[in-house]
Design goal:
The two termini are 30 Å apart. This protein is an all-alpha fold. The protein is 64% helix and 0% strand. The protein is globular and about 55 Å long. It has twelve helices and no strands.
């Protein structure tokens, strides 16, 4: 059995901020208000790449049973719920299927796949570079095949896999991005300001050309067949997401923060349960009635994150994941 990895406050703080941004993005998704498009592009340019990178940094080898309980069991349980909500939203007859994850459930499917694939990858070895190079090639090549899209979450799994592998590497090599030294050296300071500069430059270019960029392209599911969407744009978005993720880690405090620690240690229940609340509110028309969504959206997202990461909710979700061991009958 592998010993549990030490808990790093920096990662918990980053996870808390990112899950808040995930909830906020989903609250804003069905709305239209002034200034929404550039904010939405900015949000989606980095929050999921950063979340996947940190998930890779938190990776530890797990048995197939644990992978099933942690990712695929919740997927099997929550898929019918989200399919019903989608059917209600679009006034369709609900159909049960498990081959195309409904809405946010792609993350569970992708995480289970990444954990299974990571079992054969040694992030501390030089062979990691081969896996990382192949993952980048797969991320860029996925857009050339229209059939690789939402089915089995294949496109997102391929496009975001490099971030998961990068997180694994940073943790295994005890990178100063994660294991913050007491006194930063000159090399680390140069890296920090380089990441900040590239992030600002890339973000400025993204927002400058926002009128030509479809929000769906940042979901990493669409093929390059659409006008303006090219392999070079996807490559640029991946580099931007990487620089923004590094910048976020540099900005995170490396000490426990009470509320951040609570949310950062219970991101999975927040992720799965907030979608039900958001979809229900959307179906009822409550989101569209939000006054000043630019201000009320963040407040509502913070309240949801705090509520769904509370101890009673987190414990109930943990019980849902823990399958009882199969009984063995003596012959």
């Amino acid at each position: 059995m592998n010993p549990p990895k030490e808990r790093l406050p920096l990662l918990d703080n980053a996870r808390a901020l990112l899950i808040f941004l995930v909830v906020l993005g989903h609250l804003w998704e069905p709305l239209q208000f002034r200034g929404r498009h550039p904010l939405y592009l900015l949000l989606y340019s980095f929050h999921m790449p950063a979340f996947v990178l940190i998930s890779g940094a938190c990776y530890s080898p797990k048995s197939p049973r644990v992978i099933f309980e942690k990712f695929f069991l919740p997927y099997l349980l929550f898929q019918p719920v989200y399919l019903l909500l989608n059917a209600w939203k679009y006034q369709q007859i609900p159909t049960l299927q498990y081959l195309t994850p409904a809405w946010i459930l792609w993350y569970l499917f992708s995480m289970g796949t990444w954990y299974a694939a990571a079992a054969i990858i040694r992030p501390e070895k030089n062979s990691w570079w081969v896996a990382f190079g192949l993952s980048i090639a797969g991320a860029l090549a996925a857009g050339f095949y229209p059939r690789i899209g939402y089915f089995l979450s294949l496109s997102r799994t391929l496009v975001l896999f490099p971030f998961f592998l990068l997180g694994m590497r940073l943790r295994s090599k005890r990178s100063p991005l994660i294991f913050r030294p007491a006194t930063p050296n000159a090399r680390l300071r140069v890296l920090k300001w380089l990441c900040f500069a590239l992030s600002l430059l890339g973000t400025a270019l993204l927002l400058q050309h926002r009128a030509q960029i479809d929000e769906r392209w940042l979901y990493h599911c669409d093929p390059y067949a659409q006008p303006g969407y090219t392999v070079w744009l996807r490559a640029g978005l991946l580099v931007l997401g990487c620089m923004q993720s590094f910048s976020l880690l540099f900005l995170m405090p490396n000490r426990p923060i009470t509320l951040f620690s609570q949310v950062g240690q219970s991101t999975l229940p927040v992720y799965l349960l907030h979608g039900i609340l958001v979809k229900y509110a959307d179906c009822r028309g409550w989101l569209q009635a939000l006054p000043l969504p630019l201000l009320t959206g963040p407040l509502l997202a913070a309240a949801m994150a705090l509520l769904l990461s509370s101890r009673p909710v987190a414990r109930g979700f943990q019980m849902l994941q823990n399958l009882p061991p199969p009984s063995r009958k003596s012959k």
